[in-house]
Design goal:
The protein is mainly α. It folds into two domains: about 5-70, no CATH class; about 85-144, Winged helix-like DNA-binding domain superfamily/Winged helix DNA-binding domain (Arc Repressor Mutant, subunit A). About 55% of the residues lie in helices and about 5% in strands. It contains seven helices and two strands. Strand 1, helix 1 and strand 2 form a beta-alpha-beta unit. Helix 1 packs across helix 3 (about 60-70). The longest helix has 15 residues, at about 110-125. The termini are far apart.
Length: about 140
């Protein structure tokens, strides 16, 4: 709903508990994370830093359920297959690394990583990392 009103920020949802179907819908909608209130304040701080750094924060079960449920999408790539650099950056995005961590691992600037991620967003028609992961797993498995 916030996105429909022009909010482009990152969203970390703090919940006491959450139905898996709702979590799946939220992931498909592009939120950046779901945090359980029973978890420690230190873990909350870690989640916030991770999301601010460009990552996502979900439990593995939530991501598995979201990936298993495939909504009808018509997103098609704007141009050819992923480049070697895009595949390399994408593999680190899948592992939850921040832009800075990815840059350090592949020996490029953070700006270069951001540009590559923007290229991936453009090719897949998405706006967030969580959407990128979902679309790539659904539609671009052959390029991984």
């Amino acid at each position: 709903m916030a996105r429909q009103h022009g909010f482009a920020g990152k969203v970390l949802l703090g919940v006491v508990g959450i139905d898996e179907a709702i979590a799946t819908d939220l992931i498909h909608a592009g939120i950046s994370g779901i945090f359980l209130k029973r978890d420690s304040p230190n873990l909350l701080a870690q989640a916030i830093r991770h999301i601010v750094g460009g990552g996502v924060w979900f439990r593995q079960e939530q991501l598995k359920n979201a990936m298993a449920s495939q909504p009808q999408t018509t997103t098609q790539p704007e141009s050819g297959p992923f480049t070697a650099r895009e595949q390399q950056v994408l593999s680190y995005v899948f592992e939850g690394f921040t832009n800075r961590q990815i840059a350090e691992r592949i020996g490029v600037s953070t700006s270069s990583v951001k540009a590559t991620i923007q290229q991936l967003f453009s090719k897949t028609g998405v706006r967030t990392r969580s959407q990128l992961v979902r679309i790539v797993l659904e539609q671009y498995k052959d390029q991984l």
